[in-house]
Amino acid sequence: MPSCRFFQLDVFTRRPGGGNPLGVVVAADDWSDAAMQAFAKWTDIVETTFLLRPSTPEASYRLRIFTPTKEIAFAGHPSIGSAHVALLSGFSTPKEGVLIQECQAGLLPIRVEGESAERHLFIRAPKATVLKTGVEPKSLLANTLKKVKLGKLPPAFVEGGRRWWLAEFADASELRAWQPDHASIRKIGLDSDSLGLCVFARSNEPGHDVVLRAFPAGAGIVEDPASGAANGLVAAYIAHAEPDGPLARGYVVSQGREIEHDAELILRIDADATVWVGGQTQTVVSGEVEWPN
Q1: What angle do CA 177, 178, 179 make, to 5 degrees?
Q2: Of 2, 82, 131, 279, which is the most exposed, with the fewest CB atoms less than 10 Å away?
Q3: Is residue 124's pLDDT more than 90?
């Protein structure tokens, strides 16, 4: 069996163990779809990606993203981590400080800032659309949030690469202590064909501006330690609802402390409301993989 380079990473964190795990196989062009899915199931990491030669000259590389059960079009932390490996392994080099990722969500630019351990990568999030705002009074979502003091923005259903229900809490400490009904969130996700519920609160805690928790129960995950796509949608919603507000040009997010992680995500928002999601990635495992095709 031919071997490929394999990396296991921790994404959106300053230290190993704080972010979101990811597996990356390099130069997997000869792998079949079935082999990719089987390997992703075997690793049992929330996502495993495969770096491939691009199919278009504009792209730096092509990326396929698999959960243990299916292939997905886009996710934030797999994109950032895979770009980290593309640079680390020499699989791709940036042009004028930018990599272009080709994936099922299209061609997505990734800004490269800094070198080595201090490198930060920022991916342009897919354009977001606010599909609905507010909560129907007797809905399952209303019942899930009934004991919560909500924040400035009304709950919203937002789509951009993925679909999420978003809700702002008025108090960051209440958000950190919240014990949601995960079965209800799973039903909300399945009924709305979304990942589930992402909640956030503005924060006065040192080092960050927003606290965020993501519950992708619609995809079978109880709580996500670091959610690039969800954070991108929250940033897009904030920029849409408060174009002149204090967070409208970007902010720093704390995520994952409630489940013994400590992720840091940096959100940047351009004047045209384009959202960039970024942070650091730590390499934990570097080796080779042999897998039957």
Answers
A1: 115
A2: 2
A3: yes
